[in-house]
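[STRUCTURE TOKENS]
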Amino acid sequence: MSNLDALRRTVSSTLVVAARKWRRTSHGVLAAFNVSEACATPLLTASRLGAAVRQVTLADHIGIEGPSLVRLLDQLCAAGLMRRDEDPEDRRAKTVVLTEEGRAVTAKMEEELVTLRAQALKGVSRSDLEATLRVLAAFTADAGERADQNSDRSGDPA
């Protein structure tokens, strides 16, 4: 195995461990808002995307399938943090919007997360963060290409 292969293995392995630890750490902060870890992601992502966002767009941004998102949205709507509306441009589609309470909760969550990120990433330079984003983008792009290839293959008769 080359040194580059070993470095790539270390990067991918560390990514998995770091993601688990970050989720655990951030969940500790988010639990104070009575929002599950699973529900926090679509709630925060919808807030960051702003205004009304289509469910399919939200699912794409958080990397889950539509049916999985629907279950989470059901919980968020029942909690009064979000609501679903018909998309005015396409009646077949639904948009999700944060309620006033949802906006207030996400604003507080974001404040806590800003502090947590600052603490976790103290001493990491801007250029290192930018390099990290390029590496993560490579993983994301490759996963997207593989998913596209797999969906293309599944449509072909054997």
Notes: The chain has a mean pLDDT of 90. Residues 124-153 form one domain. Strands lie at 53-54, 82-87, 90-98. The radius of gyration is 18 Å.
